[in-house]
Amino acid sequence: MTFLSILFALLIEQLKPLRVDNPVYTQVQHFAAKVEAWCNAGKAHHGQTGWWIVVGSLTLPTALVYWLCLRLSPFAAFAWNVVIVYLTLGFRRYSHYFTSIQVALSAGDEEAARRHLGDWINKDCSQMDMADVARGAVERSLIASHRNVFGVFFWFLMPVGPACAVMYRMSEFLSREWSEPEHMQDEEFGQFARRIFYWIDWIPARLTAVAFAVVGNFEDAIYSWRNYASRWNDELLGIILSAGGGAIGVRLGEPENKAVILAADASAVDIDSLELESQPGVEATPRSLQSAVGLVWRSLLLWMLLLALLSFAVWL
């Protein structure tokens, strides 16, 4: 049922992808903002309380409904699984940004490419050249595919899969929402959300990196992972980006004076320790975006194949 749930959810999303501003996500954002306003008194333990309120308020009802559906009918449980996977997966949620950047770069319209990337990452990209924009789009797409697809896959395979998938997505959302906005960067409130998401994402990030290596250039991906992942301040981003960049032969990460764009947080890269010239790969180009798309799709097929084999083994 797990494999079929993911398969049906992916098919539905291909036909009707959820937009970033869909009503479900909008309500979740409002709820998280209210909890932050209620709990934020400037201390780290207040953030811990807020995290448990938000995540528990969404995870526990999801688990309860799943249990009731199992008692009612396997088909009801299957339908609930599909709904939750559809809401938590985001394989095409940000694809319009990526596609717009790819089209603009292919047409040589640098201004449009900068504008689309800026809208995607909520940063000023007006000083970037085409290599910077291409690299930023590749980095963002690799991180988005992990956090919106492969990380969800891993937690959906756990017991009470729908609740675990919701827990993962909410943990990832709160780690950003309570840390990245300018007014939250210097506060202690988001420390717990960042720390607990690190442990929640510890295994999925490594599995994503392994998948990138298997379906891409294995030797360069593993070499970059072993030698360059530690140069990012954010270890998980470093693992995914170093392995992903090595897999497609593109150097990711760039000194600050060239407007680094690293996933959702430019500060995640340790600028002083980067030695890009020694890394395998070439500078990002518009063709690198197509390579990133192929890498993500092949990784998705690998995950689905392994899941199908696991489901078949359990059924036997």
Automatic annotation (TrEMBL):
**TM regions (residue ranges):** 64-89, 149-168, 196-215, 295-315
Compartments, record wording: Cell membrane
Function text: Converts cobyric acid to cobinamide by the addition of aminopropanol on the F carboxylic group.
Tell me where it mainly resides: membrane
What keywords does the record list, in alphabetical order? Cell membrane, Cobalamin biosynthesis, Membrane, Transmembrane, Transmembrane helix
Its pathway, per UniProt, is: Cofactor biosynthesis; adenosylcobalamin biosynthesis
| Family stated for the protein in its record | Belongs to the CobD/CbiB family.
Q: Which domain of life is it from?
A: Bacteria
Gene Ontology CC: plasma membrane
- Give one GO molecular function term: threonine-phosphate decarboxylase activity
Some GO term, biological process aspect, for this entry: which one?
cobalamin biosynthetic process
Q: Membrane topology type, per the record? A: Multi-pass membrane protein
Q: Which residues form the signal peptide?
A: none
Output this protein's name: Cobalamin biosynthesis protein CobD
- Please name the source species: Undibacterium nitidum
